[in-house]
């Protein structure tokens, strides 16, 4: 888990620069934005058969309807 947080911090710093002066609310918004717009929609995961989490969820929902 520690490596996950380190990666997340590194990615956010790469996108937003130094974030030590931001408020907790601003950081929460940045974190939500990163997870929803990058990680869930564009980052392909080997454990999900090289799909994004959003694609895997959509295919799961589609298979449950049929």
Provide the fold topology.
Layout: H1 2-16, H2 24-42, H3 53-65
Task: Report what the structure shows.
This protein has 66 residues and is mainly alpha-helical. It has one domain (2-65). Helix content is 71%, strand content 0%. It is elongated and about 45 Å long. It starts with a helix and ends with a helix.
Backbone CA Rg: 15 Å
Biggest β-sheet, characterized? Answer: none
| Estimated share of beta-strand residues | under 5%
> Regions with pLDDT < 50 over 5+ consecutive residues?
none
Shape: elongated
Instruction: Bin the helical content.
Output: over 70%
Structural class: mainly alpha
Distance between the termini: 36 Å
String of helices and strands: HHH
Average pLDDT figure: 83
Question: What is the count of helical runs?
Answer: 3
Q: What's the total count of β strands?
A: 0
What is the count of distinct domains? 1
Index terms:
71% helix, elongated, mainly alpha
Question: What can be said about this structure in brief?
Answer:
By secondary structure, the chain is mainly alpha-helical. Helices cover 71% and strands 0% of the residues.
